[in-house]
Structure formats: C-alpha cells, structure tokens
Amino acid sequence: MTKINKVVLAYSGGLDTSIILKWLKETYDCEVVTFTADLGQGEELEPARAKAEMLGIKEIYIEDLREEFVRDYVFPMFRANALYEGVYLLGTSIARPLIAKRQIEIAHETGADAVCHGATGKGNDQVRFELGYYALDPHIKVVAPWREWDLDSRAKLIDFAEKHQIPIAKDKRGEAPFSCDANLLHTSSEGKALEDPAEEPGEYVYQRTVSPEEAPDKPTYIDIGFEKGDAVSIDGDRLSPAQILERLNDLGGANGVGRLDLVENRFVGMKSRGIYETPGGTVLLAAHRGIESITLDRGAQHLKDELMPRYAELIYNGFWFSPEREMLQAAIDQSQEHVTGEVKVKLYKGSATVVGRSSPYSLYSLEHVTFEEDSVYDQKDAEGFIQLNALRLRLLAQRNRGSA
C-alpha cells in the first residue's frame, strides 16, 4: 500500500464520506483534511464542520463556490449549448472539475500528498475527479475507497459506523430509495428504485420542479438579457451568474420545466438510468439559442452545432482540463462576441419557448426576408444559384441513366 502522510477528502458530511474519513485514518494512518464545497446543493453545510470536528479533524475547509461554479464552468458550457446524447445538460459532469481543482489547491496549501473522493468504481465521477487531479498535479496520490475496501453493502457500512462511533441519523439507517446528487445547475437521482427503465418514476423523486400537470394554467413570461453569450439580467434586473441561475431555477421549477428521464451511456461502458431536474438550465439553453439565432452567422452557427457533441462528450467523460476542450472553448467563446441582446421566454406547463428576441447586432433583415415588395433582393439571382448547385446532381443523373 502506498504511504500517505496527509490527504484532502472531498467531504459532504454524510454517512459515506464520514465512514471514508475514519477508514482513511485507520487504513493509511494519515492526517485528513476535509473539503466541503457549496455548489448550491441546498443543504446546510455547517453540520459537516461539526461532524468533522467530532471525528478529530483539525483542518476543515467549507467554501461557497457558487459564483465561481456558474461563472467559470456553467456559463462557458452554455455558450456551447452543450447537450450530452442530445438531451443531458451535464449538471453533475460540470461540477467535478471545480471540486477537483479546489482539492488540489488545498492539498498544495496544506502540504498534503494525496486526495480522496467517494465515487464508486462503476460510475463516471471517479474518472472525472481523477482526470482533474492528474491534469492539475501529475504527481498527486489518489485514494478511491470504493475500489479498495470490502464495505460493499449498506449493512457493512452501518456496522463500520457503529463500531467507530460515527453517528447515523435514524432516517439514514434504512436503505435509501435512490441516490441523489445536487448543485445549483441540477439534481440527479439514480439507482435502486429507479433502476428499471421501464417503470415511470414516482412524483416523490422530483425536488425542484412541480409536475407539468400541476403547474399554473397561466404562462409566465420572462425577459433574459445577454452580453457576449452570457445571461446578465432577468426582467431588467442585473444579477450575478449564480443569482441568474437561482432565479431561473425558481421560475422554471414553478412551471414544471426541466425534467428529464434518461438512459445514458456511461464512459465506463454500461448504460444507466437517471432522473434529472434542470429547470434554470433548460430555460437558459432555450434563451441562449434564441439570441444566437439572430446574432450568429449561418456558417458559425452550424459549425458550433457540429462541434457541440464532441465538446459535450469531453465534459461528460471528465476532460474539462484537456487541451482539446480548451481549443474548442476558444472557438466557442470567439463566436459569442456579438451574442448580445434580449430574449423573451414563455414558461408553460413544462415547456420553455422563445417568443421574442432582439439585439443591436442582429443579422435579421426584414428588408430582405419580407414577403412584401422590396428593393434589396433580386429574385432572378436565385436561378443561377440553383443551376450551379444542381450541376453535379444533373451530371450524376445523366451518368446513372446512361448506365441503367
């Protein structure tokens, strides 16, 4: 076993990471630093500090990273309109690079020689965390307890906790119906009661959205302001990145927007079923595409759409810090230079629909597109345009007819 002197643990304060904390000290006989990130998961984080102190931890980091999360990770991703497999807004995927980055920084600040995460050996998160760690510190040691220990059942975890006097809330003693991860962008629920993809999930799974059936019968209209591809205001109120997403979460969730039931392809090779809620992100994506529709040139817009699946896959697979993601980001960011203006979105019973858009940099020319009389476009020009584009098709048809 690798000798470890000091390790920075990504610590939630829950049962699993509290057990990991104790297991690290017992297994590696090392000093443990805990790091708890507030990414907008909606939980009180001070109990994590109290629990870490009770377990004998001297160096405890609890940090509010909500603004950095949205500004430097979520917004750059949304400039690309990133969707994994056409539908998933990457809420879990985009949070991991920031946690990994801060863990490595804390390791350097505290003189730790290792970092530790609580991801299982079956999922994507182990890959995302560790690719982030190694990209930022190629010599860091990584501990992944779920790939090392024999605590492979709920009963064994409970027994370990009781043996080491780790407090367990009564509602945590039973088997949880599903696993949940949350941050300011989304909630993710999977496993156990949700593992059969043929069964519709119960309403109890959803935490941030009302059902579309129960949403108001009257639509909600909102105006979202953009500057260079990033949302900066809602209904005229200028807000910070995290405040923008919080407000959109509230508005979208109240109208049943942002639910997704997905069977996805994990990077490790298996398929998994997840229930996602991304109310604010769903609204933001619709609005961003709305403002791009009038400010991006056709070639740039279509090229962005071609690049997007590759960009989204890089984020899903954990390659945020890779040179290819950074290359794509540079191209995407350059395309956003004139993506500025206002978008009106209609929220109604699960849908977010763009119903208006305007920009000082608009490429939309009513003079050219009008069905009425105009003086700027000669319709006769279309004949030559069609003839040139048809030339190769006509030559092909002549050849094929001759060989039939």
State the main characteristics.
5-stranded parallel beta sheet, alpha/beta, 12 helices, Argininosuccinate synthetase, chain A, domain 2, Rossmann fold, 404 residues, 19% strand, 5-stranded antiparallel beta sheet
Number of helices: 12
CATH architecture of the domain at 6-66 and 94-175: 3-Layer(aba) Sandwich
Spatial strand sequence of the major β-sheet: 3-2-1-4-5
* Secondary structure: helix percent: 40-55%
Question: In CATH, what is the homologous superfamily of the domain at 6-66 and 94-175?
Answer: HUPs
H/E series: EHEHEHHEHEHEEEEEHEEHHHEEHH
Briefly note the structural class of the backbone. Answer: alpha/beta
Shape: elongated
CATH fold-level topology of the domain at 6-66 and 94-175? Rossmann fold
Which strand-content bin applies to the residues?
A: 15-25%
Radius of gyration from CA coordinates: 25 Å
Q: What's the CATH first level of the domain at 6-66 and 94-175?
A: Alpha Beta
Low-confidence stretches: none
Mean pLDDT: 95
* Biggest sheet layout: 5 strands, parallel
Number of strands: 14
Alpha-carbon distance between the termini? Answer: 72 Å
Q: Which helices and strands, and how do they pair?
A:
Elements: E1 6-10, H1 15-28, E2 31-38, H2 46-54, E3 60-64, H3 66-79, H4 96-110, E4 114-116, H5 125-136, E5 141-143, H6 154-163, E6 179-182, E7 187-190, E8 220-227, E9 230-234, E10 237-238, H7 241-254, E11 259-265, E12 271-277, H8 279-295, H9 298-316, H10 323-335, E13 341-348, E14 351-358, H11 366-369, H12 381-403
Parallel strand pairs: 1-2, 1-4, 2-3, 4-5
Antiparallel strand pairs: 6-7, 7-12, 8-9, 8-13, 9-10, 11-12, 13-14
